[in-house]
Design brief:
With 107 residues, the chain is an all-alpha fold. The protein is built from two helices and no strands. The longest helix has 52 residues, at 55-106. The protein starts with a helix and ends with a helix. The relative contact order is 0.03.
Length: 107
């Protein structure tokens, strides 16, 4: 009988602790609801949706594309000139090396 009484006492203590925990959770939720009511709600996005771009925007985009194209063309030309310079330099150095090699053989 004493085991049943002890088990009942433990269950009662546990139920009391659970009740206290439930009360605390309910108090926290109530406080959060009060805070949510007091804080002003931020309005949703107020921007208007536009249907398309204006003529000025299209002109700006076109001008940017043209400037970018010209810049790309100049960069390509610079790369081609650099490659040609390296090729000519390689041929000159090869010719000089060949002359040096032939000069050593004659001695």
């Amino acid at each position: 009988m004493s085991d049943a009484l002890e088990k009942a006492a433990r269950d009662a203590v546990e139920a009391a602790e659970n009740t206290e925990l439930t009360r605390q959770i309910a108090a926290i939720l109530a406080a959060q609801q009060l805070l949510a009511k007091q804080q002003p709600q931020t309005p949703a996005c107020q921007h208007q949706q536009r249907q398309g771009r204006s003529a000025a925007e299209w002109l700006g985009i076109g001008a940017a594309v043209c400037v970018g194209g010209v810049g790309l063309a100049f960069a390509s030309i610079a790369i081609a000139i650099g490659a040609l310079s390296v090729a000519v330099l390689a041929l000159v150095v090869r010719s000089m090396w060949a002359d040096v090699q032939h000069g050593k053989r004659r001695r």
